[in-house]
Every structure is written in structure tokens, then in C-alpha cells.
């Protein structure tokens, strides 16, 4: 039974892609089961309910040498804690290739598209397998989520085609209305503790010298209600300082992305982070906030700028 | 113009896949050109002549940051000398994933099949593009070469299907006869200097500690005429000792694979290498030769055994 899982702090794509890929593999004769590496965000339960699917269970501890399949990530820092001792046999991902290696030839499918689910749809079509309704819901939701309904600069024609192909199978007539409902569910953060808000969509990235990299925690809150988030600014900044100390990081940043207006105002908890933000993005920090304008994609805009900065300043 | 190239010491798959992938990309609107990273072996000119194709030119020096596509390899030690400064945007390969990283999301297509050309045929079919006759020749020859006409344990059903699909397009009626002709061309080594014979199909692999790996040079001569090779044993052993010293390697091994009888007798130039061969394969060395029996695949049988050995002994 091949475990299939997405990244830590799972988003909708990480969960949906694990479920869909596990079922696809099972239909192809490879017994597989989806798992998750953490608590669901506020959007994914809404999606699962619409798809009439259960959340996958938490990944149990795996024996060294266990074969696993990764979706929507490939770097160790974003994966199972003992990934380097596991046998990665399959990866479907749309991120840059990081420190992954394999002990044997593996099945790797990476394309620079907006969402892993877009690649999973391609795998169905290449294998000439029909798409089941629940899988269509999951993939459709993942594409809308990852691309912010095509607002993100990561969006490609393949993602748009995937949505056009999947919507009729899922039975979604008004994609725009469904995306807004999904984003509203995601934005209903209630009284979630600030430390959890920070880590809902959060990844640790190594930058600079590959042997002794700087390690930065980069969180994102994508919301239709940024006012709510900035209402809790002091709490969030304190949580970021705590995370920096507790996890031994060199810096922590939290982008607050206004989905509907396509803007990103970033919380910057300290002077060291503010200096890096100024150098990497040319953006000053005032009252612990840096206005990054329309740079809303962590993958395509935030991480590359930081990488470029640390290449010459680490 | 995207440069497309296979590994150093190119074999038929490295050359054929570069030519075929460059043409496929060009047909898909991405201007691409095939290059090679070294001298052709004795088999590839025979294949190119039958396909009525020219050999690709040597890869020129590329500016840092140039976008490139790799076929049939992914590790730095087997690639362009400044690979880490190039921008890898595409890889099609059937080897284990080594030290490759990318600066941005890239197109990666890896599957554990016997030959890169088998994956290129899949890319044609997925894109619903017809296969041109010359490309069919190249891919057919590459699959037969890499799998030793299905004798290698790396052979998969996909490779057999590829040959069955390609032979009629290439106009090859008797695949067995064509493969024998190709292997005979490869075995006609003439008066090639021993140092060149050693490096015709030769790769340097890092083993053990990833920070300070041992580096071993592993050559293979696949031949229908092993008697000729063992007639030059003394010269070859001297060339191996020279390569070890000149390239600062920890060891050099040369497998002599009898294609038709599916056996591998390995030349072992020193006591240190003999000790590793004994420990990794359980095989003694006598008169500088270790009989590895039917372990004819460097990728699937030789490298994994050495990896496993050095994991615990480096």
C-alpha cells in the first residue's frame, strides 16, 4: 500500500492531489492510500464536503526504506520528517526541484503549471481513464485555489483548460460563484490562534550557501477579508517572533494576500527581516508592514527574489 | 534556441534522444537544437547513417543563465561542465535523480523505463504528433541499444511496445537482424587506443557521504566479441590506472558485457578496487578480472550495489 502525501501545512492542492493520485494509482493497479502532513486549513473542509470525500488520515511513522509517492512538493523541509530514509518512487509536482534525490530510477512528473491537480488531470487523460465526479471536484477546487481563480501569475493555459474540462464533470455551472464561496470559506478564520494562522500555509525555505543555508519561514494568508487579518496584526507579529526563536530560523515573513484585489501586504516582525525585504524587493517597511503591491505569488515572486538576494548576500 | 544535450561520453540514446527531443520541441513551437558532449561511440555513426541524420555538433561554451534541456542524464558529473550555472528548464531521463536542482519550476519527465527514447515516444503520442521516419529510426535504435534488445534487466513493457510501434514507421522488418548489425558495428573497435575504449561508455559516480563523496569511474564495453577486449586486457588495465591517477578518482572499474551471452566480466585494476568488488558483489578478483555473471546493467545492478556498500563503508 503506497502512501501518497502532499506537503506540511497542507493546502487544498496538497490534500486534493494526494486523494486523487492515490485513487488514480489504485485504478492503475498500484495500491495506494492518501495521507496528510498536518491540520487542514479553512478552505479544504469546505471542498471535501462538496466533493463528499473524507479528509485523509495523518501520515503515520514510516519504516526506513518504505516506498512513498509525493505530490505538490519535493523538498525535505516540506515533507515527512524522515524523507531522506524513505524510498521515493513517484513525484507529481509543479514547484522547482530542490534537494530531492532518489536511490533508483523513479517516476517524476514536474511541469511549470499553476497546480499539481492540473498534472493529475493530464495523467488521467494520457492513461485514457475517465474522471470520477468526486475527483473532478477535488481537482477543480485545487486549481481554483492554487491559482486564486486564475489571478495568480503562476496560472497557465493548462490550468484554465483543466477547469473548463472538469467543471461539467463536477457539475459546477458557475465556476466564479463557486470560487468566491470557496475563498469566503477560507477567509472565515474565526478565533484561530495567531500561531496557527501563521502556519496554515507556511513553508521553511533554505537560501544561499547550500551547505549552511539561511532558513526562512514564509507564510501566506490568502483572504477576501484582509481587514480581519490586520485587526490581529500585533498578535501575528508576536507569533512570528516566537516561531523565529522556537524553530531557529533566520527570518519569518507573512504575506497577507487580498485575493479579490490581487495585492500583497507583508507582515515584517523585525529589523533584520525589514532590511532583507528592502534589499530583495526594494520595498520599505513601515509599522511592520511592507506593501509588495501585486507580487502575490510566493512561488513565482517572493521566493525567487529572496533566492536572488541570498545568492549574493549569504 | 534551446540547447538539448545528453551525457558526457555519449551513447546512442544520448545522441538519438537529443536529436529527437530537439525536433519535437521545435514542432511544438520551442526552437531547440541538439548538441553532444563528446566523441561518438562505434555504434552511433552506424545508427545515424541508417537514419540519414548528421551527428549533432559539440556543445559550445554557454553563458551562465542560459536555458538548457537535458536528456538521458541529470547529474552534474555527467553533464556540461558549468551545469550549475545554467538554467535547466527541461529534463527527460530514465536514471535515478541525483544532484540536479532548478531555480524555477521546470518540465521534468522521468520514468523507470529502459531508455529515454521510450519516453520521447510517449511525449509524441501524448501530444498527438506523428513520428517522422528518421525519428523512428533514432528512437528504435536507442531502445534496442539501451536494453541490449530487451536482454537488460532495465527493460520494461513500455520499451517493448515502443519498438513494436516504431519498427513499422522506420521500415525495419526484422528487428532482431537490425539489432545484431548494430551490435556488430559497436563491437568493431579496430585499433582504438585503450584510453578511449575505457571512456567510450564511462561515467563518474559520487558514492557515500554527499559532502565528501568517494568518486568512482565506471566504464562499460558492451560487445558481441569479448575475446577482442580481453586480448587487450593489459593495455586496458594500464589505462584504468592512468585514469584513476589523472582524474583523482578513488577507483575505476570496467565491465565487459558479452551482449549475446548476457554476462559481465569486470576488469579490476588494483587491490583497493578488488576489495570493494568483493564486499559489494561478493565476487573475488583473479588475474584482475571479476566474474559478475548476469549482472550486466550498470544502472540497475552495478551502481546500486556500490551505493549500498559505500552507504555503510565511506
Outline the structure in words.
- Chains A, B: It comes from Deinococcus humi.
- Chains A, B: It is an enzyme of class 3 (hydrolase).
- Chains A, B: This is inorganic diphosphatase.
- Chains A, B: Its EC number is 3.6.1.1.
- Chains A, B: GO terms for molecular function: inorganic diphosphate phosphatase activity; metal ion binding.
- Two copies of one chain form a homodimer.
- With 314 residues, the first copy, chain A, is an alpha/beta fold.
- Chain A folds into two domains: 2-185, inorganic pyrophosphatase (n-terminal core) (Alpha-Beta Complex); 194-313, DHHA2 domain (Diaminopimelate Epimerase, Chain A, domain 1).
- Helix content of chain A is 41%, strand content 20%.
- Chain A contains eleven helices and eleven strands.
- In chain A, the strands form two sheets. Chain A has a six-stranded mixed sheet with strand order 6-7-8-9-11-10. Chain A has a five-stranded parallel sheet with strand order 2-1-3-4-5.
- The interface between A and B is medium-sized, with 26 and 26 residues.
- Strand 5 of chain A pairs antiparallel with strand 5 (107-110) of chain B.
